[in-house]
Structure formats: C-alpha cells, structure tokens
From TrEMBL:
Residues 51-67 have a biased composition (Basic residues). It catalyses: Hydrolysis of alkylated DNA, releasing 3-methyladenine, 3-methylguanine, 7-methylguanine and 7-methyladenine. GO terms for molecular function: alkylbase DNA N-glycosylase activity. Transmembrane segments: none annotated. It comes from the Eukaryota. GO terms for biological process: DNA repair. This is DNA-3-methyladenine glycosylase II. Residues 1-16 have a biased composition (Polar residues). SUPFAM superfamilies: FMT C-terminal domain-like. Keywords: DNA damage, DNA repair, Hydrolase. The keyword Transmembrane does not apply. Its EC number is 3.2.2.21.
Length: 296
C-alpha cells in the first residue's frame, strides 16, 4: 500500500490538462467562518465590478415602438398633455380682518345713517370679537325710542355724545347694547340686534351657557349683551377709545336687507312700519323674523 506522501507526490507531478471550452471558476477566498473575504491574500481590497443587466437590441426596439404607439394614440384621441397645475389652496375668509378703532366723528351722524354703516363693523371686549350683522335705528321724535321720555336716570346716556354705549336692562333679564348716535343732546341710538363670532368662541359659549356654533348663539340683542358680558355699568363708555369695549373697523357688507323694527307694537303706526331695521344679506346670523326683510 502506498503511503499518503507518495500519493500526494504522484498527484502533484501530473500535468494539468485543460478541457476544450472549459473555463475555471475562481471562488473568492473565505475566512474562518466560511464567509467570502473582501481582502485578497496580499491584503489589498478586491473591487467587485457592478453588474448591469443589459437589454437586448430587440427588446429596446420593442419598448421604443410601444412608447411611440402610445403617444400617437393620445395625440389622436386627447389634447396634448401639459404639466398639471399646482393644487389650488382653498381660502377661507370666515374671519374678517380686525381694523383700527373708529373715530368719534364716525358716530356723530343721524341714527338712520349710522345704522347701516355699523354693519360689518366689529365689537371687541377682551378676547371676544363679534361682527355686527343686524341693527335697528332709533331717532328723535321716534315713538319707539327711549328718548321719548326725555332725560332720566335710565335714558341719560342716549342724550350723550355720539360713539358712547347705552346699555339697558330689558324685562329684568337681557342687557341690550346700543351705540349712541348723532351729537350730544339729540337723543338717538342704534340697537345691536345680532352678531356673528370672530374670536373668543369658548368665552362666548361659556357666558351664553350654550355649547353651539349655530346662529342661535348670537341672534338677538340680549344674546349679544350676554356674550360680551355687559351690564348697565357700561353705559356712557366711549366706544372709540382703546381698551374695555370698542367698535372697530371691518369690511363692508356686499348687500343689505331692510325691514320694520321688532317688538315695538306700542309705537305709532308710522314708526312701527318704518323700515329702520338693517341686516347683512346672505348671512344666517340674523334674528327672527326674517321674512319681513327685503333687499335695500
């Protein structure tokens, strides 16, 4: 029996015969764990060339033909493709811009002129801002105006300077906010009947005791006074000075509705029928009745 050394010598001395068409496969060196090593026996890193899958000329020709055919079909059946425009952002203009406080001269006009001019203006007290949506004018020699009683402890603010507040208690429950109009001593005012919320909604809801965002929250003069947290102590307060209760400038309404005033059946017939109630057209923030209003 030959020894292992003799067998090894025999195999080492035999010449290597290359089989025609044979290509030797060189495996990369492995480490002790059997994993392919990134280093050659000389220690230098082996750069493995990237492999790219090349399409045959025939396949390229087929893809090109399909693209051209698709383009011809679109050109024949639909207009030329253009770049899609960027998405249009929706602009929500629910909150009007808050302007400066109106000057005193703004209020020193006839109540019938001041009333429609107050529509769209803003009432601000602390964090609560309301937009005026409905008003009523009360003038001198008006059988529905509080000034008809003359100057009393209650009505004295009505005869004060234009631009001051007149707040009175109605039925022992509701605080009614009026903006005094005209010059001092005339006795005229504009009642704020309805508003829409601009800011301070949580405070408005807390004061009103209603967790709603519907128009019922502010459609009515007593509701406006309650939302602003008013009392009769606010009478004679100048509405054109910063702080406290202010009337600020705001966007003018596009349309105005007019009609007779509400709840003045005690007045003379001509004053009951007088169209001295004004409201912003197209807004739901208007008190009842609405069927008596018409475009101005």
């Amino acid at each position: 029996m030959r020894s292992i050394r003799s067998i090894s010598s025999v195999h080492s001395t035999q010449p290597f015969r290359r089989t025609p068409g044979f290509k030797p496969h060189l495996s990369p060196p492995t480490n002790a764990a059997g994993e392919a090593s990134s280093m050659t026996t000389s220690g230098a890193p082996t750069a493995t060339p990237p492999r790219f899958k090349r399409s045959s000329p025939r396949k390229k020709s087929q893809l090109r033909s399909r693209r051209l055919a698709s383009g011809d079909a679109q050109a024949a059946g639909s207009p030329a493709l253009t770049r899609a425009p960027p998405p249009v952002s929706l602009e929500v203009d629910a909150v009007p811009p808050i302007g400066r406080a109106l000057p005193r001269e703004f209020f020193e006009v006839d109540a019938l002129d001041l009333a429609p001019r107050l529509l769209g203006k803003l009432l601000r007290r602390d964090e609560v801002v309301l937009r005026i949506t409905e008003v009523e004018a009360y003038r001198p020699n008006d059988s529905a105006c509080h000034g008809r009683f003359g100057i009393t402890a209650r009505t004295a603010p009505v005869f004060g300077p234009g631009g001051h507040a007149y707040v009175y208690l109605c039925y022992g429950l509701h605080m009614m906010l009026n903006v005094v109009a005209d010059m001092e001593g005339v006795g005229a005012a504009v009642l704020i009947r309805s508003c829409s919320p601009v800011s301070g909604l949580e405070t408005i809801q807390r004061r009103r005791g209603q967790q709603t965002e519907k128009p019922i929250l502010l459609t009515g003069p007593g509701k406006v006074g309650q939302a602003l947290g008013l009392s009769t102590d606010w009478s004679n307060h100048p509405l054109y000075t910063p702080g406290g209760l202010e009337v600020l400038d705001g966007p003018e309404p596009e349309g105005i509705l007019i009609g007779p005033r509400v709840g003045i059946e005690y007045a003379s017939p001509e004053h009951v029928a007088a169209p001295w109630r004004f409201a912003i057209a197209g807004t739901p923030w208007i008190s009842a009745p609405k069927n008596t209003l018409r475009p101005r």
